[in-house]
Amino acid sequence: MTPKHGDHVAPPAVEDQWHIRFADAAAVKGWEELCRQAPGNTNRAWHIMRDRPSPETQDPRHHRLRPPLHSGTFQGVRLDRWQLEVTGGGRVWYLLDRDRHTVWIDYAGTGHPRETA
Q1: For residue 115, how far is the Cα from the chain centroid?
Q2: Phi-psi bin for 45: left (phi > 0), alpha (psi -120 to 50), beta?
Q3: Angle, CA 5 vertex, CA 4 and CA 7 arms, to 5°
Q4: In 3-state terms, what secondary structure has residue 50?
Q5: pLDDT at position 16, please?
Q6: Exposure pattern of 18-36 as b/e (b: 16+ CB <10 Å)?
């Protein structure tokens, strides 16, 4: 997505940090809603994705989704999908693109997604 006038400016990834990008416009809208409703928790989720998007030790708030949602296709490439619980119902799902060292947010929302895993 090309930034437009008035868009937020994301800091550049440095050293071992991951780039964070939106996979689609719906993820942008959901992310903005999460930022409005839970700014502190959303900020923590952003830092987790930036610094350690695939932790060795998973926990109920940050884990890889189970099949069939455990992976997704982005730009023709099959990638692992992870989930961060931002609030009781709010979630961020993202695809981990290790080749590009990029996290692609493919779902963000204040309500629990309809699909579950």
Answers
A1: 16
A2: alpha
A3: 70
A4: helix
A5: 93
A6: bebbbbeeebeebbebbbe
**Residue pLDDT, tens place only, 12-28:** 899 999 999 999 999 99
Q: At what angle do helices 25-37 and 39-51 cross, to 10 degrees?
A: 130
Say if residues 65 and 83 touch (Cβ distance below 8 Å): yes
Q: Identify residue 98 by its one-letter amino acid code.
A: R
Q: Are 100 and 94 in contact (CB under 8 A)?
A: no
Tokens of 58: 């998973």
Instruction: Provide the whole-model pTM.
Output: 0.91
User: CA 63 from chain center: how many Å?
Assistant: 12
Tokens (6 digits) for 2:
């090309």
